[in-house]
Amino acid sequence: MVTKLYIPVNNLGPFLTAKKISNIDIHAKTGIPTVELSQLRSGDIETIRANKLFLIAKVGKIDIKDMLLGVYPELRLNSAEDIKFDFQSISDFFNYVQKDVIQMIADKTGLAVYRIKKIKANKVNPAAHELYLIELATKTKPGTLFNILFKDLQLNSSEEEANLRLLEKKKSRKTS
User: Fold this and answer.
1) Number of domains in the chain
2) 82 domain residue, yes or no
């Protein structure tokens, strides 16, 4: 029997609307398709990948912590038992984490141990809420894992941005 993983409700659509960030601006600067952005905003796609949320935050020049708080205002841990760590990199963080600590993080977040281990090994593209829950569980400043994992992630060049805007404009003319 396959159990459905819990995916928290997000406020991406209202948050981006309040910040006046359009799909075309996000698309042009990140390459994320406008159709996917519309589905993310409307909630048709419930899981927001962490790298995409990070890029969207960069487009709006929004600190990732503020983005997380705005998109997931209701996200809470399953348990409030204290765990705290100090680390400088994602590998330092997970190297310190022992099996029983991973289990405690799993218990607090509701994430499966195997999923946390896959995130640790950088073998999956984590969902934004997964990284945020891990940060909450470890009392790490929101956005820290995002900044470590995606420090090299860049927006498109101005030339690529202009090209994507032009392609999107042509595409919208064809459907009109």
Assistant:
1) 2
2) no
